[in-house]
Amino acid sequence: MITAIEIENFKGFGKRQRIEFAPITLLFGKNSAGKSSVFHALFFLEEFFRTKTPHFGKLEYFSSPELPVSLDGFQNTIHGQDSSREIFFRLELDVADEGEVGRVPRMNYDIDWDMGSGFWALEVGIGMINGEAKLTQFSVVRDRECVVNVRFESDSSRFVLTAFTGLLEMGFVEFPPTESENRIYECEAVSCESPLDSIRSFSRTFGEDDEIDPEVLEYIEFIVRGAFAYCKLCLHDMIYIGPLRAFPHEFSERDSWANGLAALEELGNIQVLERTNQVMEKISLGYQLRAEKIPGCYVEPWLVPQRADKTFENVRLRIQDVGCGVSQVLPLIVALSLKKRKLVMIEQPELHLHPSLQTQLGDLFLELTGNVESRAIIETHSEHLILRILRRIRETSEGDLQAGAISAFPDQVAVFFLDQSEYGTRVNRLRINEEGEFIDDWPHGFFEERAEELFGP
Fold first, then answer.
1. For residue 349, what are the contacts with CB-CB under 8 A and spacing of at least 6?
2. Which residue from 92, 382, 404, 421 puts its CA 20 to 30 A from 194's CA?
3. What confidence tens digit (pLDDT) does each residue in 71-130 have?
4. DSSP letter assigned to residue 452
5. Planar angle of CA 73, 74, 76, nearest 5 degrees
6. 3-class DSSP state for residue 180?
């Protein structure tokens, strides 16, 4: 799973910033502080690892008719519109001992490639090469030590590959001794559009006449392709729910999670439907869902009222007929109920919700991210949501949880406040103690507006 991301020179991010993910990661901050850019960075990386090409146009998978997502070109994506800079990302991965994670091409056949458990990271840089935005560098890190680095050198217009001694501990290839203690090979590509096309295009070691052993380059390619494949796998099941969830209607396109309508099709799965109804009852939404699969068409959901323990099956209501709240919260519940998802990103889950239901969102996220394999990244302005989570941490610590309440611990939640500085977006981690209180002060008095309105500045 992805445990952290570092971002540099991407949109509002200038100086490198780091965000460490927890099962629940909350992003707070003023408007235009850079919160959505965190999501856009993950969108960009999902498409990059899937296509192996940096794409700065419309990101189709994360767009909806209501809210298209487009980076609008490299010039408008690079920080400060300074094309001499390089966009940099670092993804950190905690790889469980899960066995096979994908099929990795090797020479003329495929092999099963097991990452092995432990800490991994992949770093990528994108900049201008001959007037085009291309991959300019990448590094594979294992157990916090760089094992392979490829970088573009503008002076020679060549990619240079360096394999470090950490590679010795990873595989079956015996590397010849070198004078340097911290690197094994440094070689350059004679001609290579992209270093991902084939690591084997790197031809000679510096200072030697003999070509590098093809088996060594094959093994290095094996490591690099495996790391890229695992990042692709981690981002493949990512779900993004935007701030504008749409009302369903008869002719709705239901393939977009960005507007929430893809959630309706998942209700055709009886396990998902049952889990969704359990959560709806727990947060006292006042309705239960029913769904019918229309042959050759789509899933038709409807609502039946629920009062106390009684449901009124003879009353059949369309989702769009019961106000905004249900249509806004339903995609969140469904997305977090799916077993296949590893990462769910949600913008402003509190929109159109009464304060009491906003507090229930805190319990909802705690319950549905109880699986340690799950991650929810939430951009929000809701004081009610975070107050409920803090309350559950405090009650858990004091042994004062009421029956049916969700337990919570500080390491389940990561809270970040984003604001602007002279170097671009700045990310501040706000730690929480076991008493459910913030150890660090909120920057600029965020959430103090209520006190000021009540008691004056």
1. 241, 328, 329, 332, 361, 378, 380, 382, 385
2. 92
3. 989 999 999 999 999 999 999 988 764 444 444 444 333 444 455 567 889 999 999 988
4. H
5. 70
6. coil
